[in-house]
Records
---
Amino acid sequence: MEILNISTSKREELIDITGRVKAVIKDVSEGIVFLYVPHTTAALTCNENADPSVKSDIIKKMSSLVPEKDNYKHMEGNSDAHVKTSLFGGGEFFIISGGGLMLGEWQGIYFAEFDGPRKRKVYCSIIKS
Amino acid sequence: MEILNISTSKREELIDITGRVKAVIKDVSEGIVFLYVPHTTAALTCNENADPSVKSDIIKKMSSLVPEKDNYKHMEGNSDAHVKTSLFGGGEFFIISGGGLMLGEWQGIYFAEFDGPRKRKVYCSIIKS
Amino acid sequence: MEILNISTSKREELIDITGRVKAVIKDVSEGIVFLYVPHTTAALTCNENADPSVKSDIIKKMSSLVPEKDNYKHMEGNSDAHVKTSLFGGGEFFIISGGGLMLGEWQGIYFAEFDGPRKRKVYCSIIKS
């Protein structure tokens, strides 16, 4: 298992980790790479890698659906981040074939920070097929 | 890796691909099948295969939560589809055991189109156990 | 494939199954465990295992986003549970390394009941690496 260390710089942001995942799988021909976030206020998502306004639209829409303040009982002030984490999910797999990551043309892999800035980790595990 | 080609006919719809996934795994006894959507405005979901009103309720509720028009910055008019894709997720796995797909009695596997009609693909990869 | 049997006691609740998943993987050194819910009104999620108010905040927020009554067409009165199931997802994987489950310090694995009380199942399948 390999670990990616990620430093986030805002409370909420999507950080492109596509290149780092490609580096992790570089010696694998066929298989699946499993990415896993061992945190409860951050997640993973795969979405558009071209127009950066897609990222800001996603962050903004999620904040309007699940606002930071909303009569939550949890006292740490980050219940919204916990809800968003359950909605996005912290585990994503990607197919490796022909020695490459089988992403779509417009896809990037994003670390979704919902309660930063923090030091974060992503676990990467590969099963060859 | 096998590819399913899917033609969608509406802007938003859930298309049952259960039979096509069963065809992909037909010679496998034990393992996991990984389904992956290489698009940023379409996803996968597993839900009820009996009453079709469940599908229309899901589509309608998602459209009320994430409306097509909502002061988005992205100019292509499909930011709602990007958000829904991150919420549903484009990767789903299913367990193969005893030579069959281990779905629940009421479960169907659906391709979730959020910005159609389009020509779409689903990648299918199997790891035997 | 192993099956966990779960009895839920409320309409909506998050039930910690972390210990049961650890028991399933106890003889495995390296690999991935795949958990799968064969139901259409229940899901899985991974979130905080410390303050129980995080669980109640998640349940409450999901009920305000997707209310039980909301002009749904499906006559069984549980369309909200179907939508929540698609949002959370019924399949989650976890990495096994060094003979243990690679969870974060604050993570627990939860069965998410959205239309209980019911008798439920979680399928568990392991692929060693």
Note: The mean pLDDT of chain B is 97.
---
Amino acid sequence: MKDIFGSIEAGGTKFVCAVGVGPEQYFRKVFPTTSPKETINKAIDFFSYYEKEGNLKGIGIGTFGPVNLDKKSEKYGVISNTPKLNWIDTNIHSPFQENFKIPIEIETDVNIAALGEYTWGGARYLNNFIYLTIGTGVGGAAIINGSLLKGSGHPEMGHIFLPKLKDDSFEGGCPYHYDQCFEGLVSGASISLRCGKKAFEVKETDLVWGLVAKYIALALVNYIYTLAPQKIVIGGGVMKQKHLLSKVRELVVRYLNGYNYSNINQDTINDFICAPSLGDNSGVLGGFVLAKNNFNLV
Amino acid sequence: MKDIFGSIEAGGTKFVCAVGVGPEQYFRKVFPTTSPKETINKAIDFFSYYEKEGNLKGIGIGTFGPVNLDKKSEKYGVISNTPKLNWIDTNIHSPFQENFKIPIEIETDVNIAALGEYTWGGARYLNNFIYLTIGTGVGGAAIINGSLLKGSGHPEMGHIFLPKLKDDSFEGGCPYHYDQCFEGLVSGASISLRCGKKAFEVKETDLVWGLVAKYIALALVNYIYTLAPQKIVIGGGVMKQKHLLSKVRELVVRYLNGYNYSNINQDTINDFICAPSLGDNSGVLGGFVLAKNNFNLV
């Protein structure tokens, strides 16, 4: 019987659960993120079948944050002051570890997506890149010298402060930084608040996308100057808006204004800023990488 | 005869040259940065004496940038589009390598300062921290997982875009980003332009320091959210202004507004944001680290 692995991409809007080994062979199930108890129980039910069969060897969980990833801490696995208020103080690790006698690894949602793109996607063979997701919230991960950037805890790249555009009177959607931070200006939740409808219902011709493109480009410039990446991969629901990626590319070149060591210009920008080559599955596939890495260490 | 090492901290205002082994034993000489030829020749003269004696085993150079650090490139050692216009296209490596038959290593000025603080200063035993200098220009370096963050080239942290404060009508001092980037707002050169006198001549009671503190704090928030450092060390001439550090600490806590995983708050901020414990010598001492590392590899 072949070994398989489990993966969870725990997002603010939906949970994606999967079992398999990699992009060639896996099965996934998606359900909405509701209360912590209900949502986690659905995920446990999904994996129970495979665990009873005996061939599920580990589960990798990528969750929204901020989440405590310090294994020595009493609060390991606990989600802290997230804008998703009913999830504050939820332990997303222990219910799985208590139910299953296999290794359960956790990371941030963007970190597993970065692992997916690094292992099977467009960032293969790159030792320094950024994975950004602009969905319900905004999150970023970086691979630096071939390892996930962790530092003290994990990055919260969505919350960097950006210049507020002069023609923008929106008061912002971040409960902590209002209109000052990237997430407060361009997350799906912020766009909904700004436009009075779901982000995916906002027409392609709406002027809001011009503002959104500018804010995304400003944020990318900041990441470029801070991390000097070889590539930036941007996923998430907001990026499904047509034309956004090409506008962002054009603006990044304009804002850098020739000042960068990495030779980012009109000719190189299409390879430098890309959509995830694994589509919506960077995260859930990266969960297998996380689960397998752990299994190798056991 | 004891082995000694050479170090150069090549800054926009002054060159600091030194020979020695570490903080306990070294000799340094400082001269102003003028034309590339004159300045580099003075540095070569300084080291020639020790090289002829035969105990100088290598030189580590930390330079302002952007500089090409790719050893495989034809432009290795060449400074590119810097705001210090007469230094554009200067090779800061080859004149030393041609004159001396010892290993010559180069890095950015802030990278060697980070190496100094990491080896002998306040960041010892920390695997993730940021070294920032706010002098003639603004530069940043990061140690990530115990190694210098390099990525594609090197970071240019001074050029991140910041919110422009409402009560600030200054048009900015960055030749590439005007008043949009951190350096354009708070570098020594920008403060001089803003105030019509050298930054160190601006009185402690001048209202400009309130603005400067806010911009520095906004930039630190962005670095914190992007890199999740365990500590931020800030040096450079501008930081010699009394009260600036304590204002910055207070504002960083206020701007984070409780949203950070790393538990940065009123009680921890004094240990988190610090002046360089090696004072003005983080860079020149870090040059020895760079020179020694290289020597070990030869």
Note: The longest strand of chain B covers residues 14-22.
